[in-house]
Amino acid sequence: MLEDKTRVPHIDWSDRKFLDESAYNPIESNGHSPRYVLSPWSECSTTCGPGVRIRSAECVAAHPVAGMIRLPHSECQDQSQPSLFESCEARPCPLQEDSKITSEEAPFKWENGDWGPCSESCLGGKQKAALLCRETASGRAVPWSNCDARTRPPQLVRQCNQHACPPQWQVGDFGACSVSCGTGTATRSVRCIRPLSRSGGEFSDIYALYLIAV
């Protein structure tokens, strides 16, 4: 026979991570509503010619006791996520003395392709964009060796699957029987939890109960 002995209410704030907001530039917020804060832009990925610079975004909210806390990205879903990549160019690259053609006339060019699969199914993973070398005239992909390695752009990486993981059961072992002979009881804990981090050490209780075996 199984009995539900105890219920623990959902924990809203105690398992949240703290965030030092001083390193971020906040986007316009509404009171204590979840919002995105952005890190400064990185340096341009190239010292000359076209490149890419990146920044990170965190979903945060103001808590009356704990201060600023970090939340899963799913809690900022009512806001449009700001762009994390933008093109940049520190300065034009000098022309090579032995070059007879401009970059527009080059027979092969680098190009970022489709995004690959996300590395995680929840709580945030990473996606990499395929880097391609294309023949300018036909547009078909060719081996990298055809493109100029000196102008190869960095591979783009972005965050993905920022939503929370689904709940899961956490079941403990049965303890000792309450009697040494005859009919007794043994108990174990069963918790329904929602992981809050990939390390496995942070989670919130959805509810907990004790199972009694007779």
TrEMBL record:
Which SMART domains has this protein been placed in? TSP1
Highest taxon above the source species: Eukaryota
* GO MF entries: metalloendopeptidase activity
Q: What Gene3D superfamilies does this protein's entry cite?
A: Thrombospondin type-1 (TSP1) repeat
Which GO biological process categories is it annotated with?
Answer: anatomical structure morphogenesis; extracellular matrix organization; proteolysis
Subcellular location per the Swiss-Prot or TrEMBL entry: Secreted
Designated name of the protein = Uncharacterized protein
* PROSITE patterns (UniProt xref): TSP1
A cellular component term (GO) from this record?
A: extracellular region
Main subcellular location of this protein, as a coarse class = secreted
Specify one Pfam family.
Answer: TSP1_ADAMTS
Keywords per UniProt = Repeat, Secreted, Signal
